[in-house]
Write a structure and sequence with these properties.
heterodimer; A: 496 residues; alpha/beta; six-stranded parallel beta sheet; four-stranded mixed beta sheet; 23 helices; 12 strands; B: 249 residues
């Protein structure tokens, strides 16, 4: 079977450029605005039902912070419990190690394909690409992931990866692509949601019944019992987690909760924040293997891939509380307009803007220009912090990471950038009132020369200056700044 | 009560009428206000863009310029947030890096005394009717930092609600960001303008004659877009409306 090469985020330009392309796509903007505003309204309703919502958020943050404080011991406890229940635990330092482990388990089983439960972490490590290189097919079974995979596309949302697609586009993708990789879509497929879902169901059923190996991520793992949990809406996860002989779960090391009781908090926070439901339709949990029921072998791969670096950073470590609900995406005015792919990572939106740079080592040293652009992909409006069920202060982390970008610099610039020069100039001007007065006088003169009726329409200069004038005028600096007025008459109490 | 006015560098240079309105308003309410001329800028633009060391001299100047006052009033919610929440972060860094060991103490002495204008009017002075008259249809943009960082809630609306002759119109999706975001406006101009375009459309749909907000920064961005679009909607800081009386404006 010949396949197109799998699409990748590699080569995504820095955020401002990537966003520009997305902003020009009218269909994308319409699809996104409609989808995010719908889910925003639903979430607000689901959250308003709970008068203890703030207490739940505080509890969620506190439990995750406890996990992060005691992570090594808790991970070892999990390992012990999983092993005692008949599972095999592997430790992976990075994506390459994790992918090699999966490949080796699949090969040993003599399998050529795996079915997959929707999982962010396997996108982070680009598992499907690694499997493809070894001639192993990975079939996504979540409806939206299926749409993305069949469309040779990239995901643009954590929970709803095909949020950028509408029904008509999905019908066209199913009709053209399903037959290439399995059971074709019915010839007369319409764009009615029920028909689209039925086509996906029939297409996937074949794969569920055939596959011998499944790969999943994990929403939570309970340290005290070694129980791993996946929450989902479609039942595809339940199929993958129970039918195949071998189950491989890849899990970031921060996904732990200490006890079963702690799940009480997260199973209330997660569904209301993500799908705006009181409870998600399917919750599957398993502890090792159970003879005669479900997979005969269970492999748990514990992945670091930059997480211990995040943990080591005092301000950044709160990022590891994230439960991947995507509430921050749905309320973000930037995400709503640019969509997810502009972020150049499977983690888009506000959480992606802080998680991706940290996983890529921004706290340790210089990063590439695309990564360095992510902490700036926010107006710092604060909607994400308000929506976050585990109280990650995303704006605080964003400005913290901006400081890292400024202080570690970029390896590509040896001369100061126009931004650095502009910022330094502003710093010098604002250093003393005398300099500020002088600059104000020059500004007033300049504004008087080039301004028209109090407005400046255009100003030549580097992007940090000219960017303003792309669609905005600027008020000309005042002829008499406030401090000049104060000296002349204000302090004497003359009527202003 | 010794009251100092922190004008902010934006207002000082680009919108001095806002400062004059604050002075006029406070005098009308019976309070004398001082303008310490040593002040320049709170450092917000530098801090939020990641230039933390460049903030140190600005934060030092701020703390020293306003030392000794009982109250510092500012007509800018976002600068108030910078002073109260972020200047202590800069000061801690300055001490940690040996740049200025006593800065945390000096900042801690001043930053809790800083009040945004509507907080000062409603909470400290306990007034919502400031005796203003303004006979126009007005759209009010709440601004993100007012709502989500400073949590000033409905104080601006309560003040506007008491202004004689003023008709407050409903602005759709009012709590959505206008797209300014400091250097975001120039580092991500296309996204900033896309956000601003939706806000401008919502403003125009109200039929308001005047757009107001408690912060000049959002108004610079929205006013600049309205000007570029040739719109007759006027942009006024909340303080200018609260300072206006019968016959004026």
């Amino acid at each position: 079977m010949t396949r197109q090469p799998l699409p990748t985020f590699a080569g995504t330009p820095p955020f401002p450029e990537a966003a520009k392309a997305a902003l020009a796509d009218g269909q994308l903007r319409t699809n996104l605005a409609h989808a995010t505003s719908t889910i925003r309204t639903k979430r607000a309703r689901a959250v308003a039902e709970r008068d203890d919502w703030e207490a739940l958020r505080l509890a969620g943050a506190a439990i995750k912070d406890e996990v992060l404080r005691d992570l090594p011991a808790m991970l070892e406890r999990l390992e012990q419990e999983v092993a005692a229940a008949g599972g095999v635990v592997h430790w992976a330092r990075d994506a390459a190690e994790a992918n090699a482990l999966v490949v080796s388990i699949v090969r040993t089983a003599g399998a050529r394909e795996v079915v997959k439960v929707k999982s962010m972490v396997t996108q982070e490590i680009e598992l499907n690409e690694a499997l493809a290189r070894e001639g192993i097919d990975a079939w996504e079974t979540d409806l939206a992931e299926l749409i993305v995979q069949l469309g040779h596309d990239l995901p643009s949302h954590i929970l709803v990866p095909a949020i950028h697609r509408n029904r008509r586009e999905i019908r066209d993708i199913f009709t053209a692509e399903m037959g290439q990789v399995g059971r074709p879509a019915p010839a007369d497929l319409s764009d009615a949601p029920r028909e689209l879902a039925e086509a996906a169901r029939l297409h996937l059923r074949e794969k569920f019944l055939r596959a011998r190996v499944a790969v999943s991520g994990a929403n939570f793992a309970v340290a005290e019992t070694g129980t791993v949990m996946v929450v989902e809406s479609e039942g595809n996860g339940r199929m993958c987690l129970t039918l195949p002989e071998i189950l491989i779960t890849v899990m970031g090391i921060e996904k732990l909760v200490p006890t079963w009781q702690d799940l009480e908090v997260f199973l209330q926070l997660l569904p209301r924040s993500s799908t705006a439901e009181r409870m998600n339709p399917y919750t599957t949990m398993w502890t090792g293997v159970t003879p005669g029921d479900g997979p005969r072998a269970f492999h748990l791969i514990l992945l670091d891939n930059g997480r211990t670096d995040v943990l080591a950073d005092r301000v950044g470590r709160q990022t590891l509380r994230c439960i991947r609900c995507s509430a921050c995406l749905n309320v973000c005015p930037v995400y709503e307009r640019t969509g997810g792919r502009a972020y150049g990572s499977p983690y888009p939106g506000p959480i992606g803007a802080i998680l991706t740079p940290q996983l890529r080592g921004i706290v340790r040293g210089p990063v590439d220009a695309q990564t360095a652009s992510l902490p700036y992909a926010s107006s710092l409006c604060g909607a994400c912090f308000d929506a976050c069920p585990v109280r990650i202060d995303i704006p605080e982390v964003l400005v913290h990471l901006r400081a890292r970008v400024v202080e570690t610099g970029s390896p590509h610039h040896r001369l100061p950038t126009s931004e650095q020069l502009a910022i330094a100039a502003a710093g010098q001007v604002l250093r003393t009132p005398r300099r500020l007065r002088l600059a104000q006088a020059f500004g007033a003169l300049g504004g008087w020369i080039i301004g028209r009726r109090g407005w400046i329409r255009r100003l030549p200069g580097p992007p940090i200056v000219s960017g303003w004038f792309r669609g905005r005028d600027l008020r000309a600096p005042a002829r008499e700044p406030f401090r000049a007025w104060w000296r002349r008459s204000g302090r004497h109490g003359k009527p202003p | 009560m010794r009251i100092a006015l922190f004008i902010t560098c934006f207002n000082d240079t680009l919108a001095p009428e806002v400062g004059r309105a604050v002075v006029r308003l406070l005098r009308r309410l019976g309070h004398e206000v001082d303008f310490p001329e040593a002040q320049t800028c709170c450092g917000q633009l530098h801090f939020n863009t990641g230039y933390r060391e460049a903030c140190v001299p600005l934060v030092r100047r701020f703390a020293d310029a306003f030392a000794g006052y009982d109250v510092v009033v500012t007509p800018s919610p976002s600068c108030a947030v910078m002073v109260r929440d972020q200047q202590p972060v800069v000061a801690a860094m300055a001490a940690e890096r040996g740049l200025d060991p006593s800065l945390p103490e000096r900042v801690a002495a001043v930053s809790p005394k800083v009040y945004e204008l509507t907080e000062f009017l409603v909470d400290t002075l306990g007034v919502t009717d400031v005796g203003a008259t303004f006979r126009h249809r007005v759209a009010f943009h709440p601004t993100c930092h007012s709502v989500r960082l400073l949590h000033i809630g409905d104080r601006p609306r309560r003040l506007l609600g008491e202004v004689r002759g003023l008709t407050l119109v409903d602005l759709a999706d009012a709590d959505q960001c206008c797209g300014f975001g400091g250097t975001f406006a120039v580092k991500n101009p296309d996204t900033s303008l896309a956000m601003g375009a939706d806000k401008v459309a919502a403003i125009l749909a109200t039929g308001a004659e005047v757009l107001t907000a408690a912060d000049t920064s959002c108004l610079l961005h929205l006013g600049g877009m309205l000007s570029r679009a040739g719109s007759p909607v006027r942009v006024l800081h909340l303080a200018e409306i609260l300072a206006s009386v019968e016959g004026a404006a």
